[in-house]
Amino acid sequence: MINMKPEDLQQWRKKSGYSQQELAAISGVVNVCISRWENGARELPSFLHFALSCMEKKDSEFKQRGINEERG
């Protein structure tokens, strides 16, 4: 199992081009959840690394097909 740290989540989000609001909407949580995860006020869910990996795969598949998906 891979444990993410708050700074890992923030780096992933920024590298992937998501705002906190966009990531929250896609993840099904409220904005403040992402903020609290990133600043360490709340423990990151154990499944988060898997969920982000799935999002990366989905984005990659859209890019390969030349499909632009609007976020948010």
Summarize the helices and strands and which ones pair or pack.
Blueprint: H1 6-16, H2 20-27, H3 31-39, H4 48-65
Helix pairs in contact: 2-3
Note the main attributes of this structure.
single chain, 72 residues, mainly alpha, 434 Repressor (Amino-terminal Domain), 4 helices, 64% helix, 0% strand
Query: Could you say what the CATH topology is called?
Result: 434 Repressor (Amino-terminal Domain)
Number of DSSP-assigned strands: 0
Number of helices: 4
Unreliable stretches: none
Supply Rg.
Answer: 12 Å
Percent range for β-strand residues: under 5%
**Relative helix content:** 55-70%
Task: Give the CA-CA distance, first to last residue.
Answer: 29 Å
Shape: globular
Structural notes for this entry:
This protein has 72 residues and is mainly α. The chain has a single domain (6-65), classed as 434 Repressor (Amino-terminal Domain), CATH 1.10.260. Helices cover 64% and strands 0% of the residues. It contains four helices and no strands. α2 packs across α3 (31-39). The longest helix is centred in the last third of the chain and has 18 residues, at 48-65. The radius of gyration is 12 Å and the shape is globular. The mean pLDDT is 84.
Produce a short descriptive summary.
By secondary structure, the protein is mainly α.
